[in-house]
Each structure stands twice: as C-alpha cells, then as structure tokens.
Amino acid sequence: MIEMLPEWLLGWLGEDGIATLNYLSNGKHVAWYASVKYTFIAAFAGAALAVLFGLLGAAAKQSSFFILRAIGNTYTTMVRGVPDVLFLLFFPLAFEQSAEYAFAYWRCTPEEIATATSWPLCQAAQWYLGTTEYLIMACVSLGLVYGAFAANVIYGALQAVPKGQLEAAQAFGFKPWQVFWHVQVRQMWVYALPGLSNVWLLLLKATSLLSLLQIIDIVAWADRLGAPNFLPMAGLVHPDWRWKYYLALFVFYILLTLISERFFKALQARVSRGMVRAE
Amino acid sequence: MDAILNNAFVQDLIILAKPALYNIYFALASIPLGFPLAVLLALAKNKPNSWLRKPAEIFIYAFRGSPLFIQFFMFYSLFLAFNQSTWKPLGIDWLVMSPLFIGPLVLVLNTSAYSAEIFYGALRAIPKGEVEAAQAVGMSKWQSFRTVTWPNMLRLAWPAYTNEVVFLFHATALIYFTMPVIDRQKDLMNKAGELFEKDYALFVHFSAAALYFLVISIAIFVLFGWINRYLNRHLSTSKPLSFKANYLR
User: Fold this and answer.
1) Largest CB tally within 10 Å, which of A48, A86, A170, B13?
2) Alpha-carbon distance B125 to nearest alpha carbon in chain A (angstroms)
3) Is residue B12 part of a domain?
4) Is residue B187 included in any domain, yes or no?
C-alpha cells in the first residue's frame, strides 16, 4: 500500500510519517476501519425499522378503536420513562430467552425440564448467538426504541395534514385505509421530516452502544487497539493510547452528524418546494 | 406481609434501592454545575459580535453531535493516561479516577451543551418589545437582563429543560458501562445485570430497574412542573407542564 504512494509525498512525510502510515494501515487497523460496517448497518436498518414501527405506532395512536389507541399510547410513552440502554439490553435478552424457552419444549425431554435448576432448561435448548444474530437483534431493538420516538413525530405530522385533503378524498369515495395510506401518509412526510431528522441523529449516536451486545464494532476495536500494547519480542510498543482512539471516534461521530444535517437540510429544501412557508 | 416481602419483584426493589442512589447522585451532582454553565454558554452563543461566540458554538456542536457513551470513554481514558504521571504524584488519584468524579464531570459538559441550545432558543424567542421597553425606561444592561431577559428565558426554556433533566437522569445509566466499578458501588443497570446473571430471571430484574427509572422520571416531571407554574405565575393562562411536552432531546 505505502509503496504505491508517489515519491514527492513520501519525501514530504519523512521517516516518522511513513512509520505512522504503516502503523495505521496494519491488519488490525484495517479490521477496525472495516468494523464501521456494523455501525452503518445498525443505523440504516434501525432507521428503516424505526420508520416502520413509527408508522404503525402513529396509526395505532390515531385509531378510533380504544384498545389500539391504548397500545399506541403505551408504546410511545414507554421510551420517556426508561433509558434507551435498558431497552437495548432487554429486547435481545428477552428474545433469546423466549426462543430458548420454545426450544426447551421442542428439544428437551420432560424429565430434564422437571429437574432443571438453571437456564437454559437443558443443554440442547442453548442458543449460541453470533455477531449476525446480535446485529439483527440490535437493529430490531434500535428500531423499537426509536420507532417510539418516530411514532410521536409521525403522529404530529399526520395531524398536520390539512383536513380538507382527507375530506376531499372521502368525498371521492376512497375507503378509510386508502385515505390513510394514499392521502394522509403521502402528505405527512414533509411535516415529519424535521422531527425524523432529529430521531435519526439520536439513533446514529445510539449505534455507539453496539459493543454492549457483544458486537466487535468501532468502539470495541478502539478499546483493543488503544490498550497498552506489549510484545515479548519488541517490548512496549505503545503505552495507553485509548484516549487517542476515542478522540478519533468523537470526531468521527461529529462528522457523521454534520453530514446528516447537511443532507436533511437539502432534503427539506427539496421536498418543500412549492409549499407555502409560514415565515 | 411476609408473602409480599418474599415476592421476587419486591425483593428486587429492596435490593435496588441503594444502587438507585448512585444514579440520583450522578444527576444531582451534575445539574447544579450544568445549569449555570449552560446559561453562560447560551449567552455567549447569543452575542452577535463576540470572540466568545465561536468557541461556545463549537463546544455545543461537539457535545451534541457525538454520543455520550464515547464522551465517557474518552474522558475516562484521557484521565487514565495522566494517572501515573500527574494524579498519583499529587495524591489525588483516588478522587480524579473515581467514576463518582469523572461521571458527573462528563455529564456536566454534555448536559450544559444540550441545555445551552435550549436556553439559546429561548433567548431568541424573548419578546423584542419587552427588551425595548426596558431600554426606553433607562434600565442599565444588568437591570434589563435581571428583569426581562433572565425571567423570560427561564420561563420559555423550562418545559424543554425539564426534558433535558430527565434525559440526563437516564444517561446516568451509561456511566458504569464505561468505567470500572470501585468498591461495589453499583448503579441500577449494573446491579440489575448482576442479579440477572445469577438466576436469568430477566423480566423481574429489568422491570424492577425500569420502575425505578420511571418513578424518578415522574418525580422530576412533577417537581419541575411546580417550578414551571411558579415561573409562569404572572400569566393567567398558565397551563400545568404537560407530560407530553416534548419527546426529543
């Protein structure tokens, strides 16, 4: 890699610069850079699921059916009282336990279940989770937690759609679900966008918690790479450099925020062309 | 009575009472410092031509634009890097390296950035006429700040600030995920995790911890609602602070 750089650049970098570049492009660092994929997968899949759960939650909240409304309101208020990290840990564990409970009835003998003293009920019911499973569950729990935030935003946006539009659609003989999906949801996005961009920024920052679910993401790698590195052959390679790696992540997330804000600003300008602005 | 006490959930609530105090401590230690710092930052950001504006803007953007989780890690490892060279010789490593010190420190920086943005928004929403009226009657800058800017800012920012305080309280759950536990000083999430690893009764332990968070959040809403009513006492239409004031940070 380094040999491919032009001569003048190598001259400008000097001995130390080349050594630093070599260090920053060794196998472990490349693995660190590659692990950013988990962050992005969790962010994008989580965001897609959050919009889906948000739509469902908002639809439940404005339903005329009492029970659906209660479910929607419970869902959107639960995130207010409890930290997101609790849900992020709770959902995957709860899902794993439910699956193992189901496995137990399927794979264990009745005697094993009757005499079981610990979890899982028998060895055959143990479910070993790999990174892929954890990543999927992280996406789902991010989607659930931030879906509740999105549901509030979308609910507000649905209410902001002019009533006349809905009445016009009804007058044309649209069925209720058609009015909801083709008119109300269609027109809602433009009102929801500022709120949804806030939810996206929250979700983006929450992707730093992936390492709590045993995913070796950028945070876990930063911890490993920065820890005091001692090799029997070479002695102390470097002291505790963790703060440098975390500083890099700090800057990385600020840049992601910056880019997201620019993107949403441009998107907002694009989708609201032709709209009457209140200002 | 014994039947209630022997209930697993009630047992958990009793066990988790002491860990909950750590979360409350973290929040109580950071609010009194975070509030004035946030006001100063907001005032600095609101000054149109001042060398203070740019630093305040950058500080607020940096701490709002990055995850608190990373901020905890960053400051803890930064302090750790100076442990042998600075804190140990000075004999203050027991204080500086304690999560009970670094936790509130990072929370102060984080919450002051978020609250400063709220106060800045409130400063921009202060009725222009009131400020002009204060000038017209010949008030000094300080008098006009004390009688017009300050009460209006506080009143306008209060519902959003209430939310920020609740988020701050929730953020205290992250401290012991990023720093080592010293002397069995476990907080709610930590203790719930420890209980979970003993008997895998997930739903009991985590809902007990969640209940503590919920109850304390509601207590914050009620307390701040009273203050909100006091701040708006001159307005005849003062509504009580809604529980659905604002969902986002």
Assistant:
1) A86
2) 14
3) yes
4) yes
CATH class of A34-271: mainly alpha
- Tell me how many domains chain B contains: 1
Residue B18's domain spans which residues? 2-231
Of the candidates B69, B81, B206, which has its C-beta nearest A86's C-beta?
B206
B90, B89, B93: which is closest to B101 by C-alpha?
A: B93
CA A199, CA A54: separation in Å to the nearest integer? 11
B68-123 per-position pLDDT tens digit? 999 999 999 999 888 888 888 888 888 888 899 999 999 999 999 999 999 999 99
Phi first, then psi: give them for residue A268, nearest 5 degrees.
-60, -45
Angle at CA of residue A214, ends A43 and B79, nearest 5°:
90
- Find, in chain B, the residue whose alpha carbon is nearest to that of A213: B177
CA-nearest residue of chain A to B196? A93
Q: Which residues of A touch B74 (CB under 8 A)?
A: 243, 246-247, 249-250
CA–CA dist A8, A4 (Å, integer)? 12
Q: pTM for this one? A: 0.88
Mutate to test the interface with A, among B26, B77, B172, B176 (most CBs of A within 10 A): B77
**For the domain that residue B35 is a member of, what is the CATH number?**
1.10.3720.10
Candidates A201, A219, A258; nearest CB to B70: A219
| ipTM > 0.90 for the complex | no
Identity (one letter) of the amino acid at A52? L
DSSP letters spanning A74-90: HHHHHHHHS-HHHHHHH
